[in-house]
Design brief:
The complex is a heterodimer.
Chain A: E1 12-23, E2 26-37, E3 41-45, H1 52-59, E4 67-72, E5 75-77, H2 82-87, E6 90-93, H3 105-110, H4 126-139, H5 144-158, H6 173-186, E7 191-195, H7 203-218, E8 222-226, H8 230-236, E9 239-244, E10 247-253, H9 259-267, E11 285-295, E12 302-312, E13 316-320, H10 327-335, E14 342-347, E15 350-351, H11 357-364, E16 365-368, H12 372-376, H13 383-387, E17 398-399, E18 402-403, H14 405-418, H15 436-449, E19 454-458, H16 466-481, E20 485-490, H17 493-499, E21 502-507, E22 510-515, H18 522-529, H19 534-545
Parallel strand pairs in A: 3-8, 3-9, 6-7, 7-8, 13-20, 13-21, 16-19, 19-20
Antiparallel strand pairs in A: 1-2, 1-4, 4-5, 9-10, 11-12, 11-14, 14-15, 17-18, 21-22
Chain B: H1 2-13, H2 15-41, H3 43-55, H4 63-92, H5 100-117, H6 122-147, H7 151-171, E1 177-178, E2 183-184, H8 200-203, H9 212-230, H10 232-242, H11 244-249, H12 254-277, H13 293-303, H14 308-327, H15 335-349, H16 352-378
Antiparallel strand pairs in B: 1-2
The chains are: A alpha/beta, B mainly alpha.
Chain lengths: 546, 379
Amino acid sequence: MTTLNNMEETTYAIEMLGITKKFGNILANDHIDIRLQKGHILALCGENGAGKSTIMSILFGLYAPDEGIIKKEGVEVKITNPNDATNLNIGMVHQHFKLVDTFTVLQNIVLGDETLKEFRGDNLNIVKKSLNYLNKHIFKILDYKKAREDINKIINQYDLQVDLDKKIKDISVEMQQKVEIIKMLYRKNDILIFDEPTAVLTEQEIQNFLKVMNNLKKEGKSIIFISHKLNEIFAVSDQITVIRKGKYIDTLKTSETTKEEISALMMGRKLKDFKEKSKKTPKEEVLRVEHLTMIDPFSKKKVVNDISFNVRKGEIVTLAGIDGNGQQEVIYGITGIKKARDGVILLDKKDISSYSIREKIKAGISHIPEDRHKHGLILDYSIYENTVLDRYYEKEFSKCLFLNEKNIKKYADELIDKYDVRSSGDGNTIVRSMSGGNQQKIIVGREIERNQDLLIAVQPTRGLDVGAIEGIHNLLLEQREEDKAILLVSLELDQVFTLSDRILVMYEGEIVGEFTPEKVNKKTLGLYMSGAKKDEVNAIKEGANE
Amino acid sequence: MNKIKSFFSSLIKKDSTKTVVTSLWCALLGLILGFFILLVINPSNAAYGMSSVLGNYLIFSNPGDRLNYFGQTLAKTAPLIAMSLSILVSYKAGLFNLGASGQYSIAVLVICFLGVGANWPWYVVMIIAMIAAAIWSAITGLLKAFFNVNEVISGIMLNWIALYLVNGLLSNSSSVWDGAHSESIMITSEYNSFIPSIGLDKLFAGNSIVGLGMILILIVVIIIFILLKKTTVGYELKATGLNSDAARYAGISKVKSILIATAISGALAGLSASLSLQNGFTSWRLSSVPPEIGFQGISSAFLGGLHPIGVIFSSYFIMHITEGGSMITDLGFSPETASIMTSVIIYLSGFVFFIKEAMRKFEIKSELNKLSRNKENKV
């Protein structure tokens, strides 16, 4: 184990020295040093709320540090807003992409760095010159042709194939990420920051992404890679900087350390093993879905096509598949967020197909939605208010029309305690100011505490760190022990295998295979997920029909 | 000593304090610009004009007159408070009630026929006027909830429909129309529909328009405050306003929230009409623009920091300026000048959020400057 602090002669693309940032009483960054060598990939890892995003936001000019200096290639620089960062050729791909949905890929890439139409050449006459002048200052007509040429060069150089004329809302998450990368390269950025880039990708896409990272490195770009997935970190990085609870812990060469060492440094303790799933025979049926069909209102396509399955007490059933194959819509159909075209949903043998969302919640559905900011929480409400979001009207929490604040507080304080929700203050803290892991704990706690028969969890560990994932896995397994029926939607194969009792693979709105984790391996599952096996399945089905 | 200091510094850092400070800034900015307008139009009388705008009733030397006009300003504040609450309630549910003028007009229609024509008791007239305005406002809500029609657009359209409906119906019925002055017949203290003074007029030098209305509106402020803060309805409204998606996921009906919010805010606009007409200080005049009070309410709601209590003070301020402004016509300013100047002050007052944002940026900048200065000192 060699620390890099004594290698003074190395040239650094970026140095951040003694960075300190306080939010109120919370020390988000406490004298953190980050040194990125030219042409290297530096992995920045730490648990949620360790201060990774904060320090990168400082580098990108979104926050001003309270203390500390930033140097680019040995020269001290001031970065007070994202424009400064862009001028220093620093680019960042945020965890949540910053793209305009209704614009095409091409428009998104040039947005903010538009090339204007211009007459070029040696013999420019007065007319052309004045046209150029007018265009530059008044008309501002864009030169898409030139932009397209430039972008195509980048696409070929780095092997980042995307369709420039498709709209962002019509392309997959992986493609959107490529657009973000091309955007940085188009601006000639040479220092690239990736904030948890693989959180939204599937197994295969992650492998492709790691290749892209290596390409970028080969072309001389310096990269900071924020992640807590150790496999990926060890696959691509040259150095690893670990921070914990806002403090700088160490920087290690990737080749000279081990995953165990890094995870121990990250957590300040050794990783406990995940709870083993116990052997258990499922009991009576809780949820039964029959012939569910959902139509996309815009494209009129069948996004869910005649699906039937059931979930029993004491088992975890997982809808696996690549993002956008109808898993989300199945959940919409069951919870009533969107109307189903056809099909019956039975909960405890009662037909709840025509119930409203509220009636379904009351009938016994708990739902942990995928997007905690958009669907799970009211970010400007306090913890207290959010813990009763789907049960404030119950007798315990309201009398006549009035909220029973005393009971709400008591209940919320218990939940905060039980699920270890951490914030800068008490239950009056506004949820927006909290870290993602703690926000998720509020939702998970809220839904589990309702003590319903059916728990639906859509990507419950999305964007969380190892420690938080461990906690949520264990909570789900505990629920299984308590004979709850659990329907899980997950994109991560590891999660699918550790948690499920049954795996239903979805491809293009249909269930193409049902497995138990013991009898299938990742490769076969991957093939089913990518649709390669579908034809075979169909052939078998047809054979059976004949 | 230190304790007091830390108390003040924590007070300054509080968000609510910031809102109050920005509101004061806005008001000041409006006053400065208003003064500038007076300077341009009539420099010799500008200073005196400004002092009369600011002084309002204080420019009278006779204590009786002072009290009388002070009472008048207070009484006229009541309808503006109601209007501000109307804007505020819909805003909390994520809606922008630009249709308040139309709701006000519909209430005027009811008040004229039932109050002037039929001379029903004041509370009956008030309640029916509120219900009528609530129903009118709910049209916007229905359009929004079921067809996703933008409430601003439907609100503005309904303003004009209401305006011409009221113009037409009132001016054609002789029982409520005073043809000589081409306005609706004023409700005076002889009418049953006049909101009683309950002796308050004696406190204000016999100004009969001061009365129960002022107390009523304070009660309504408290009701709205409790509704938003303590009830499940308020919880639902605010949840829908802050994040309608998450509210829906939690089973809160968006349709219900929108309908309740528009109906309440319509009822409050109706109350505003009732407090103006049934207090006998205004009547309906033939007009080609929707009543101004609906728009003043927007300024007042924002200047009051979108808080039910804050709205009391902002409404008083706006009414104080408006009343003061109406006096400067005696000083050689045209009535138009007076209204331009008061409008400038009022509308600048609506800039609270704009200024709050500017202040935030300024704070960040000064913090950065401090930082770089510290660094230089160290070097």
